[in-house]
Amino acid sequence: MKKYIILISSVILLVSCEKEISINLNKTNPRIVIEGNVSNLKGECSVKITKTINFDETIPNPTVSGALVTIINMNTNKIDTLNETKPGIYTNDSLQGISGQTYTLIVKTNNETYIASSTIPKMVNLESIQLPDSIAGETSHGGPFGGGTGSNTIIRMIPIYIDPVEVANFFQFVVTKNDTMQKDIFIQSDFGFNGLVSNRPLRVKANKNDIVKVDLQCIDEAVYNYLFGLNENIHQSSATPANPVSNISNNALGYFKAHTSSIKTIKIK
Amino acid sequence: MKYKLFILLLFANVSLFAQSFTISGYISDKKTGETLIGATVSNKANKQIGVSANTYGFYSLKLPKGNYELLFSYIGYQEQTIKVNLTESKKLNVTMNENNVQLGEIVISANRENNRITQTQMGIEKLNVITISKLPVLFGEKDILKTMQLLPGVKAAGEGQSGFTVRGGSIDQNLILLDDAPVYNASHLLGFFSTFNSDAIKDVTLYKGTAPAQFGGRISSVVDLKMNDGNNQGFGANGSIGLISSKLNIEGPIQKGKSSFLISGRRTYADLFLKLSDQFKDNQLYFYDLNTKFNYRFSDKDQLFVSGYFGRDVLGLNNRFAIDWGNSTATIRYNHLFNDRLFLNTSLIYSNYDYNINLTNNANPFSILSRVRDWNIKQELQYFSNNKNEWRFGYNVIYHSVIPGKITDAVSTENLYDLRNGLESALYASNERQINEKIKISFGLRLSDFAVLGGSNYYVLDNNHNITDTINQSNPVKNYINLEPRFSVNYIFDNSNSLKAAYSRNTQNLHLINNSVTTSPTDKWVMNTNIIKPEIGDQISLGYFRNFKDNTYEMSIETYYKWMQNQIDYRDAADERNRVIETQLLYGKGRAYGIEFLLKKNKGKLTGWIGYTLSRTEKEIEGINNNDWYPSRQDRTHDISIVLMYDISKRLNVSAVWVYQTGNAVTFPSGKYEVAGQTIWLYTERNAYRMPDYHRLDLGLTYKFKEKKHFNSELAFGLYNAYGRENAYLISFDQSESDPNKTVAKQTSLFRWVPSISWNFKF
Predict the structure, then answer these.
(1) A234 plus A186 within the same structural domain
(2) A207 and A115 share a domain?
(3) Do the domain assignments include residue A5?
(4) Domain check: are A206 and A162 in the same one?
(5) For the domain bounded by B225-762, which CATH number is listed?
(6) Interface of A with B in 186-245 (CB under 8 A)
(7) Which CATH number fits domain B16-96: 3.40.1010.10, 2.60.40.10, 1.10.10.60, 2.60.270.50?
(8) Residue B722: helix, strand or coil by DSSP?
(9) B517: nearest CA in chain A?
(10) Are both A58 and A86 inside the same structural domain?
(11) Is some CB atom of chain B closer than 8 A to the CB atom of A43?
């Protein structure tokens, strides 16, 4: 709605203007940030641990080394330990998740323990990817939906999948373009679309001949809610600007995501 | 039987006087036949004895047998003296002439010059349409609600925001009534215009504090708007042509002196400018609205009014997304006079607010409808017991139905959210009486009930807001009963000094869940459920009122403290589109307090006012801000408005308005971190930061052309934001363009220097 109001004001013959300002923001105590993943694919298990910084400091934020990181399969009680392979990044190449099973992440660092649980939902296959627009088609507007720069064009990619008949299924689409993971967070839920063949589009910036990989991940509701909040945080579109609600205990930021993966690759024509 | 006895006892004092008679009738404008709400009648020899006309222009004055000179007065009208020899009860309908000498004079508040001193109610502001005609306004459109926001205690929600807040309440806590019909969204074009076309409005009363018992359902304020009845003496038309909107108002008699009609319409054409721009040529943006009214007088005892409003806003983007929204209301009222002291009004009211979102861009286009609809019956008996004692009894039953969101595509229709129905009933009685020459009191009691009707799913939640059970029954799911007392007292020191105190409790059963950043026409109206409880507001207020120099100056100081229970806010990182909205909400309490100063000059070449409010509004909600008190978004420490109007000559006048406000309370990030390769903002407290202070100067100039016999016109120029202040509409945070690893704050402002010109005419 903010965008419409700016549009209206700029349309009614008047200009709205944007400028950088300086605001005196409070200092904060560093808080721990954990990003954890377990997939039904081998080699996808990783946990990244960092710390927050003040608003006026420079990214990247500091990593946390020397933590003890384990993942427990709550159905089999099997315990896997993750090793620090790069500063702040912990991995385990043998751990492979299974649909329907619940995983618990335990991170111990600096005399604090952080715990999170996530369940891998039922597998849903990505049937195909449709490209309704030709690359010469829909161009970026610069208007309220704009934002395209350079030669990149915003195109619609429609991932086709069949939503399970049960209510409350949640999906994330991880898009990789020419081997670079795209930052956009695409999520869908079956609210209003339950049990249907889904054909809601993702808007992706792309050029002709780009190789685009779409990974359809089934996620649980807590992770969906986290990503929803994360998206609102990034776009500052939230009803109440706030930290996304994490599924990790002890006041940690970030999330622990156990998910399925179904991947399709397409070349943009 | 006991009840009857009680009523009899209440009125027992009536017949104890010597033989006395009642003189009663209607007071109206001679030229147009419009009834004059609040015009006063008094005994010229002893002005202490007097009454004022009710909302239908009806008065009833009781006097002992004898000869009298009755004085009829109304601000902006020539006083009229009528000699009466009272030997029996009499009907006397009076018509009054507009005071041409005073026509240019601004009428700010009262019907009588010292009304603010003598009336019992406090925290009350009356605006008359003449008042607003000289003030500069955005886009040259006179707007009675915008003018109201220049009074202390009333604050605009902000530039580009719909609605207004009263004494720290939120925007949904104002009951806005157009001819008795509740209006759910009083804004057009996302807040740049109000839904009320000033050509069609006769009178507006704003109750900031203790509203009489006939009003209920919102905890902050009541804005009671009355539409014009239409000229019953002769046909007339007036209108205006402006840069982005035009309007036309036509009225006239159906039977001279007995019945009349009025049709008033507006349309903006800002979208024509869109056509000029390549970028926006496929976009649409406009609103229109229509007010109609018809009235018929069957006899001196029976009168019928039918009035309606319809308005719509349309916003379309690139032929792929469109949203339209608007209110419609209809009111049928029937007045019946049982005798010269007993007045009955029956109203049947319909009111509707909805919005439609159309998405045509998808593989399968669909639309989403959301709607609030009311059917409402109201009956009120007004009894003029004697000149010092007036009673009202009434009831009001409203059937509310809400469709929160219905999705329709080519093949099917589905309700995304559970339908909600509720029955709101109220029974009330109030009395206003003069105890002695110094003391006037008014008290009232309202008994309200809200039944959450069954027939759709309701949910039971655990402490973590997870659904644990579903309730589906045909009987009401829950009943909320509340007793709402009101009381006010006025101690009149003398004709120019008074002290008032008041207390009231109000409850609210419909709540607008709006996000904490901006308002939008798609904000959700929700009713009480088994989980959402009625909001309860208690307010105490105290005020000192003083007039100077023969009522040339008016001064008042009012202070208030308000407690609010069952306040609602979104939890952190809420999902507004969640299937069960209760899972996204948190509840707690609120408090608001403040002091309001007002100094007005009512007469002379220079008129206007200075208003200042010092206030605070906070909430304490479990789960937000570590359960500590935090400022509400509309909390503004300082608020100043200065309004000046100066008549250079009979035909030329200039005006200026300056406003200053502390910025809204907002939530800004204090730190940052990275997740998924993106910069994420770290928030620490809710509403702990402030938007920059808001201030603005507007200038206006009106030139009246020479009056012709049947045609008057004037040109009005305005300059909004004359010194081009870049007021912040939005502050956002982003990566710096020069160094992507750094972050910056960016401010978006909407307007600088908006000039306007409009030509107003009347024939």
Answers:
(1) yes
(2) no
(3) no
(4) yes
(5) 2.40.170.20
(6) 191-192, 199-201, 225, 228-230, 232-234, 236, 238-245
(7) 2.60.40.10
(8) coil
(9) A239
(10) yes
(11) no
What residues of chain A, 117 to 156, have a C-beta less than 8 Å from chain B?
132, 141-145
Is there a contact between A239 and B515 if contact means CB atoms under 8 Å apart? Answer: yes
B751 to A9: CB separation less than 8 angstroms, yes or no:
yes
Hey, what amino acid is at A16?
Answer: S
B715 touches chain A (CB under 8 A): no
Question: Block means of pLDDT (10 residues each) for chain A, length 269 residues?
Answer: 55 64 86 95 93 88 94 94 95 93 95 95 93 59 39 82 90 93 90 83 86 95 91 78 90 95 91
For chain B, domain boundaries: 16-96, 225-762
CATH number at residue A192: 2.60.40
Task: At A253, list the tokens.
Answer: 């930021």
Going by C-alpha positions, the residue among B584, B576, B674, B676 that lies closest to residue A173 is: B676
Q: A235 lies in a domain?
A: yes
Question: CB neighbours of A235 closer than 8 A, spacing ≥ 6?
Answer: none
Q: Do B573 and A51 touch (CB under 8 A)?
A: no
Helix (H, G, I), strand (E, B), or coil: what is residue B449?
strand
Per-residue pLDDT of B90-118, as tens digits, reads 888 888 887 654 333 334 444 556 667 77
The full DSSP string for B156-183 is E--TT---EEETT--GGGEEEEETTEE-
Can you name the residues that pair with B460 across neighbouring β-strands?
B469
Given a contact cutoff of 8 angstroms between Cβ atoms, the answer to whether B31 and B98 are in contact is yes
In terms of residue numbers, what domain contains A174? 126-245+260-267
| Number of domains present in the structure of chain A | 2
* Structural domain contains residue A16: no
Which residues in chain A have Cβ-Cβ distances shorter than 8 Å to B671?
Answer: 28, 31, 52-55
Query: ipTM of this predicted complex?
Result: 0.87
Q: Is B139 left (phi over 0), alpha (psi -120 to 50) or beta?
A: left
B263: which strand partners? B250, B292
Residues 229-268 (B) with a CB less than 8 A from some CB of A: 244
- Cis omega before residue A132 (within 30°)? no
CA distance B348 to B424: 15
Nearest in space to B11 (alpha carbons), one of B337, B301, B341, B339:
B341
